[in-house]
Backbone:
C-alpha cells in the first residue's frame, strides 16, 4: 500500500462485493489529495492496486458489511467523504435509513421517494414516476399473471428486469404473453419490473455531483456490450453531447445526487432521451477521464474541499474517440477467439494502452491474473480448472497464516523480554 503523506482530507470507500466497479476509486481519491481507507472484503479490487492507505476488513452479506460500516464509524473515525461502492450495499443501507448515521453516508437523501434509487430496479421505477424523471413505460409486478397483464397492456416488446442483478443479468426480452409463460417459474416469486423495450442509441454517462450540482461528466455511446446484448460495455465511443450534459444536470437537480452517478440513457428513434438506469455509485470507467481531457480527480478535489460551484468539466466539443474497455474487451477477445482484437491489444492499435492503469503496475498485474483465470475457466477440464482456481487461494491463506505466526512470535519475544526486564 502507498500512503498519501501530504493528504489533508480523508475518504472511505465501502463495498460488500468484489465487483470491478471500485477498482480505480482509490487512485482517483489519492490523486485528489485524500488519505484512502477501504472497508470491505479481502478479495475486493481496490486492494489489488497500490492506492489504499488503510484496509478495514468487512466480510459477509451486504447487511453484515453495512453493520460493519456503522460499527467502524461508531468508533469515532471521521471522514470527509464516505463513498458506497456497490448496489447491494446501497440497498442494505437503505433498509437502515432510520438510523441516525446512515443518511450521512448515502449519496441520495433517503426520503420516502428517493430511497428507491438506492440499489434496486423496482425502487428506481417507483422513484422515477414520483419525481417525474423521463423514463420508459414501466410497471412493477409480482407473479406471472400480473406480468402477463402488463405485457398485454403495453402491447409492444418489453424487458423483464429482476431485482438484485447487475451487468445486464436478470433481463429477459419478451414480446407476447407466450414469451412470459416460457420464462423460469422463479421469476414470478418476487417483484420485477416490466419495462418498454425502447429502440434507439444507448448512451452512458459517468457523472460526478457535488450536492446535486454537476462537477464533471463523461458522455459516450455504447458500441459493443459483452456479454451481448445487455451486459457491461466492452467498447464505447466518447463524444461531447450538449443534450446529454443538460440531461445530467437535470438529474442532479431533481435527485440531489452527491458523488458518483452511473447513468444509462437511450435516445429513442424520435430523439427523446429516456432514463434507463441511475446507479449512484462508481463504475470502472470514471478513471478514463484523465486520458480523455476530463480530469475526474480535479472534480473530486473540489468536492472534498467544498469549493465554489463552477461549470461542469466535460469532453471538448468535437471529441470522437472509440475506446475498447479494459479488461472487458480483452476478456471478450479471449473467450470469443477474436484473434484480430487480441492482436490490436497486443500491438497497441489506436493507442489503446493509454487507457490502461500504467501508473499502478500492481493493479495491472491483478488484471492479467484475472484474464488468465477467465481463460482457464473457459478452456480447462473441470477437475483441472478446480485445482487451478484453488492454488492461488491456498497460497494466499498460507501467506496469511505465516504472517500471523510471525506476528505471534514477535509478540511472544516482546512479552518474554518485558518479563525478564520487569519481574513481578
Residues:
Amino acid at each position: 500500500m502507498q500512503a498519501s503523506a501530504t493528504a489533508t482530507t480523508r475518504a472511505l470507500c465501502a463495498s460488500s462485493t468484489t465487483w470491478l466497479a471500485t477498482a480505480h476509486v482509490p487512485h482517483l481519491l489519492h490523486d485528489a489529495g485524500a488519505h484512502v481507507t477501504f472497508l470491505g472484503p479481502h478479495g475486493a479490487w481496490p486492494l489489488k492496486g497500490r492506492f489504499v492507505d488503510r484496509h478495514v476488513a468487512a466480510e459477509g452479506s451486504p447487511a453484515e458489511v453495512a453493520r460493519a460500516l456503522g460499527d467502524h464509524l461508531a468508533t469515532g473515525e471521521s471522514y470527509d467523504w464516505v463513498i458506497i461502492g456497490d448496489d447491494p450495499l446501497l440497498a442494505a443501507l437503505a433498509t437502515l435509513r432510520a438510523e441516525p448515521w446512515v443518511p450521512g453516508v448515502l449519496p441520495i437523501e433517503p426520503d420516502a421517494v428517493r430511497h428507491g434509487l438506492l440499489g434496486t430496479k423496482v425502487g428506481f421505477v417507483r422513484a422515477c414516476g414520483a419525481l417525474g424523471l423521463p423514463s420508459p413505460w414501466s410497471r412493477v409486478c409480482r407473479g406471472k399473471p400480473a406480468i402477463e397483464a402488463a405485457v398485454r397492456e403495453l402491447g409492444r416488446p418489453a424487458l423483464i428486469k429482476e431485482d438484485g442483478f447487475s451487468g445486464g443479468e436478470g433481463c429477459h426480452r419478451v414480446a407476447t404473453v407466450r414469451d412470459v409463460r416460457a420464462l423460469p417459474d422463479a421469476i414470478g416469486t418476487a417483484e420485477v419490473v416490466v419495462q418498454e423495450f425502447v429502440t434507439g442509441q444507448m448512451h452512458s454517462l459517468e457523472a460526478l455531483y457535488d450536492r446535486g450540482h454537476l462537477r464533471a461528466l463523461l458522455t459516450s455511446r455504447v458500441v459493443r456490450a459483452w456479454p451481448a446484448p445487455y451486459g457491461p460495455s466492452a467498447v464505447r465511443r466518447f463524444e461531447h453531447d450538449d443534450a446529454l450534459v443538460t440531461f445530467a444536470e437535470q438529474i442532479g437537480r431533481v435527485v440531489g445526487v452527491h458523488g458518483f452517478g452511473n447513468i444509462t440513457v437511450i435516445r429513442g428513434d424520435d430523439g427523446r432521451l429516456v432514463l434507463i438506469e441511475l446507479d449512484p455509485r462508481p463504475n470502472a470507467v470514471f478513471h478514463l477521464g484523465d486520458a480523455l481531457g476530463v480530469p475526474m480527480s480535479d472534480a473530486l478535489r473540489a468536492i472534498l474541499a467544498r469549493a465554489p460551484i463552477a461549470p461542469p468539466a466535460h469532453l471538448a466539443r468535437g471529441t470522437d474517440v472509440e475506446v475498447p474497455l479494459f479488461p472487458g474487451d480483452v476478456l471478450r477477445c479471449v473467450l470469443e477467439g477474436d484473434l484480430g482484437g487480441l492482436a490490436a491489444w497486443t500491438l497497441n492499435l489506436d493507442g489503446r494502452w493509454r487507457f490502461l492503469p500504467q501508473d499502478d503496475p500492481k493493479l495491472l498485474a491483478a488484471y492479467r491474473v484475472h484474464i488468465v483465470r477467465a481463460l482457464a475457466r473457459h478452456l480447462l477440464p473441470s477437475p483441472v480448472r478446480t485445482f487451478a482456481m484453488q492454488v492461488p487461494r491456498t497460497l494466499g491463506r498460507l501467506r496469511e497464516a505465516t504472517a500471523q505466526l510471525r506476528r505471534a512470535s514477535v509478540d511472544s519475544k516482546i512479552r518474554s523480554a518485558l518479563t525478564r526486564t520487569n519481574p513481578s
Q: What stands out?
A: The mean pLDDT is 91. Residues 382-421 form the longest helix (40 residues). The two ends are 41 Å apart (CA to CA).
